[in-house]
Design a protein that fits this description.
alpha+beta; single chain; globular; Aminopeptidase; seven-stranded mixed β-sheet
Length: 172
């Protein structure tokens, strides 16, 4: 298995949209109504919205490839691009998704290590993320990787308010 990570650019917009839809849908469709899923997907992953995010200098996207096939992606934010005010010493992992057929192969660890690398490049002291309180697999993974729950915030899936746990890892 050959694994490669590549930074996304504007030419990757359609691929980014496709994998964003696919992985988000795979991850959350069974626990949410079709109406709320559609409302979220139609808002979060439009070409206009993704182009705006890709163009933000404080956000970066990375694809992880397995044998030249896109298997997942990562989005990190610094400064004002963070979805919560966490200060200048923090880097946010806003999205980290792996296609279901590539899960359990260590790719999440590759992407997490990329996020840590980016945090170090930007002289950040901590990384953080929000994870849905019902996403037990993800929470277990982040705990194993050294994250602790440090708070919570609201996340809106369509018209439904959900709770995301904020998990933080201090970098050494």
């Amino acid at each position: 298995m050959t694994v490669k990570i590549k930074k996304c650019n504007i030419e990757d917009l359609l691929i980014l949209q496709e994998i964003s839809f696919e992985t988000f849908n795979e991850t959350f469709k069974d626990q949410n109504s079709p109406e709320n899923m559609k409302a979220y997907l139609d808002r979060a992953f439009t070409l206009k919205q993704l182009k705006k995010e890709l163009s933000n200098i404080d956000s970066e996207f990375f694809f992880v490839y397995v044998n030249n096939e896109v298997a997942g992606y990562l989005k990190v934010n610094t400064n004002d691009a963070q979805s919560e005010e966490m200060g200048e010493e923090a880097l946010e992992i806003e999205r980290i998704y792996i296609k279901s057929n590539f899960q359990k192969h260590g790719l999440g660890k590759y992407l997490l290590n990329k996020a840590i690398e980016k945090a170090m490049e930007h002289n950040k002291k901590k990384i953080w993320l929000g994870v849905w309180e019902k996403n037990e697999n993800a929470m277990a993974f982040y705990k194993k990787m050294g994250f602790d729950q440090t708070g919570s915030h609201s996340f809106y899936m369509g018209d439904e308010e959900q709770t995301d746990f904020i998990m933080t890892k201090t970098l050494t």
